[in-house]
């Protein structure tokens, strides 16, 4: 898959989610109704519908949908079990989960490209750390905290899947050299680095 196709492919799902979220908001606005009751309401069986109401892709294309839906379900479940009694609506917990996954995955994998993305996350979204604290009563800090923790847990769980950093011969702890018949692979598993004898 070319870079252009990968970029376009990675935009489809987020664009669909934005259309759905804005569509819901438009229905609320035009019909002068509130759909906040579809949010997560902790420890109330009716509040579980909020997990099912809201339905990373360029670097983690094999994992992206899996991680997205797991962040969504884990965050919603943790909010339902442990948050204060109020309707918790919106997708901010999922956003925190995805950002957390991307950030910690880069650090855990020690992959140069992914670590660069991790630092970019800190630069762009570093102030979001304050969202996990109960400073503003009208904001679901519980969703933010749950999402952030879900992203961390999933980045550890999936650390061996997806892009991996290249291990050079001099980094081999055993002192053994790789098999001379097997050329080393690059960070992109579709390409191979030429091997000289």
Question: What features would you describe in this structure?
Answer:
By secondary structure, this protein is mostly helical. The protein has a single domain, classed as Rhomboid-like fold (Up-down Bundle), CATH 1.20.1540. It has six helices and no strands. Helix 3 packs across helix 4, helix 3 (64-82) crosses helix 6 and helix 4 runs parallel beside helix 6 (141-157). The two termini are 30 Å apart. Residues 48-53 and 177-197 have low confidence and may be disordered.
Summarize it.
It is built from six helices and no strands.
CATH architecture: Up-down Bundle
CATH topology-level name? Rhomboid-like fold
As a percent range, the share of strand residues is: under 5%
* Biggest beta-sheet profile: none
Count of discrete domains: 1
Write down the overall geometry: globular
Coarse structural class = mainly alpha
Radius of gyration: 20 Å
CATH class: Mainly Alpha
Name the features.
single chain; 197 residues; mainly alpha; Rhomboid-like fold; 6 helices; disordered C terminus
SSE inventory with pairings:
Elements: H1 3-31, H2 49-53, H3 64-82, H4 92-109, H5 112-125, H6 141-157
């Amino acid at each position: 898959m070319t870079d252009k196709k990968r970029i376009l492919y990675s935009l489809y799902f987020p664009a669909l989610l934005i259309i759905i979220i804005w569509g819901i908001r438009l229905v609320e606005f035009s019909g002068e109704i509130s759909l906040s009751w579809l949010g997560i309401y902790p420890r109330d069986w009716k509040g579980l519908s909020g997990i099912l109401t809201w339905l990373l892709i360029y670097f983690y294309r094999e994992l992206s949908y899996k991680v997205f839906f797991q962040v969504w379900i884990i965050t919603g479940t943790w909010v339902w079990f442990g948050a204060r009694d109020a309707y918790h609506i919106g997708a901010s917990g999922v956003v925190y989960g995805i950002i957390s996954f991307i950030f910690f995955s880069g650090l855990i994998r020690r992959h140069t490209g992914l670590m660069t993305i991790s630092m970019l996350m800190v630069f762009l979204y570093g102030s979001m750390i304050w969202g996990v604290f109960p400073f503003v009563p009208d904001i679901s800090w519980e969703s933010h905290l749950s999402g952030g923790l879900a992203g961390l847990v999933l980045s550890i769980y999936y650390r061996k899947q997806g892009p991996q950093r290249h291990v050079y011969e001099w980094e081999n702890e055993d002192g053994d050299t790789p098999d001379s018949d097997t050329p080393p692979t690059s960070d992109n598993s579709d390409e191979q680095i030429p091997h000289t004898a």
